[in-house]
Design goal:
By secondary structure, this protein is mainly beta. It has helices at 3-7, 77-89, 97-101, 300-317, and strands at residues 103-110, 113-132, 163-168, 174-177, 186-188, 197-199, 208-209, 212-213, 222-224, 233-235, 244-262, 281-288, 322-332, 335-342, 345-352, 357-359. The strands form five sheets. Strands 2, 3, 4, 11, 12 and 13 form a six-stranded antiparallel beta sheet that branches. A hairpin with a 2-residue loop joins strand 7 and strand 8 (212-213). The termini are far apart.
């Protein structure tokens, strides 16, 4: 500090400087069954609790998957023409004249299966949290031991819907002096070092600029600190002046529907990503806590991907989460390749999905001079 800083006044030594926002290591209690927390800082990874063996599901015995045979749908010329007209109406640079006057040559239905596996999981993590203590009830260890993470009851949401719920762990609460202000309820302002005033930045504390009185500080060489409004201190940002904090462990329960999709890539002229925007006919739905890989389906690639994805989901989720339910679905996604003739040239387009969407790699121009 130089003499100019000393001229700004002294600070109250009873008001502490700001401490860390998160409790320092060793500040918090150890709760049996919830070891692994560090200091409760926002950047820490919350400890994750794998479900105990009793929560791991097992395959049912003597169960098989039966997939019915289906008929590949096709569209009529009227449906294909209407779909194309609707498509060109959404494109300002396309004329509807070719769609109205084209001549169909062939409508070729194509078999497209979409396989989907859903694994609905529940995951539990925990972290220390705190709030200002203003005399509220403290559910601490004196009322008993905290139940293990997976013994805390929760209400299950609707299946296959993502949700998160935060629960205060019973008997994990206790009160401690605020670690940021050390129980003072306020902290020294870091902007003015607790003095309530700051050196004027226009005249650098001299009170004059260009041999004239500084108009910013009115010749005083100092200005009131705007950060603390001249008080030299601020209300503690952690305890909000309460001086004490109520610490507790917060359990976070996360339900998530993990989805994997697969469509065999057998149409080089049709972009597979288009299938993501349309629905299909789910002619096969198999649902259980754990589903079996599909066997005996006419398309062997669907059987192979069913086996592969089911094994991947089991390997990925059983070590960290509880599997609540699985569902595998085979959809028939309508796809028709329409070949047509217009103005002496051959073209084609695709009608796909239950919504009869259209994809066309090339559309004829209707610009002709009559």
């Amino acid at each position: 500090m130089d003499e100019k800083d000393e001229e700004l006044g002294s600070f109250d030594p009873n008001i502490p400087e700001e401490g860390p926002s998160a409790p320092p290591p060793g500040w918090l209690e150890v709760i049996n069954g919830y070891q692994g927390h560090k200091g409760g800082g926002p950047e820490e990874d919350d400890p994750l609790y794998p479900p105990p063996p009793a929560y791991n599901p097992q395959y049912e015995v003597n169960r098989s998957t039966s997939v019915p045979s289906i008929i590949v749908p096709s569209v009529s010329e009227d449906v294909a023409r209407d779909a194309l007209l609707k498509f060109v109406e959404s494109k300002w640079k396309y004329s509807s004249k070719p769609a109205r006057n084209l001549t169909f040559k062939e409508l070729q239905p194509i078999t497209v299966y979409r396989y989907q596996l859903e694994t609905y999981t529940e995951t539990r993590t925990s972290a220390w949290q705190f709030e200002p203590y203003n005399g509220q009830m403290v559910d601490g260890p004196q009322y008993g031991m905290s139940p293990p993470p997976w013994d805390i009851p929760v209400s299950l949401p609707q299946r296959y819907t993502d949700r998160m719920e935060k629960i205060r762990v019973p008997h994990s609460s206790f009160v401690k002096v605020c670690h940021k202000c050390h129980g003072c309820g306020r902290t020294r302002c870091a902007g003015c070092f607790g003095r309530g005033q700051k050196r004027c930045t226009f005249c650098h504390g001299h009170g004059r600029t260009r041999n004239k009185r500084c108009t910013s500080c009115h010749g005083r060489g100092r200005k009131r600190c705007l950060s603390c409004r001249g008080d030299g201190y601020k209300t503690c940002s952690v305890c909000h002046g309460a001086r004490n904090l109520l610490h507790f462990i917060q359990l976070t329960v996360t339900w998530k529907n993990n989805v994997s999709n697969f469509i065999p890539d057998r149409q080089p002229d049709f972009p597979d990503k288009k299938f993501e925007k349309v629905s299909g006919d789910p002619f096969f739905i198999d649902e259980n806590v754990l589903v079996y890989p599909i066997q005996g389906f006419p398309d062997q690639e669907i059987c192979d991907i069913s086996n592969k994805l089911i094994n991947e989901h089991l390997h990925r989720f059983t070590s960290t989460s509880r599997i609540l339910q699985q569902r595998q679905t085979i959809e028939l996604v309508p796809l028709t390749h329409a070949y047509y003739h217009y103005n002496g040239k051959d073209y084609s387009f695709f009608v796909f999905g239950m919504e009869n969407k259209v994809f066309t790699p090339k559309y004829p121009s209707a610009c002709t001079l009559l």
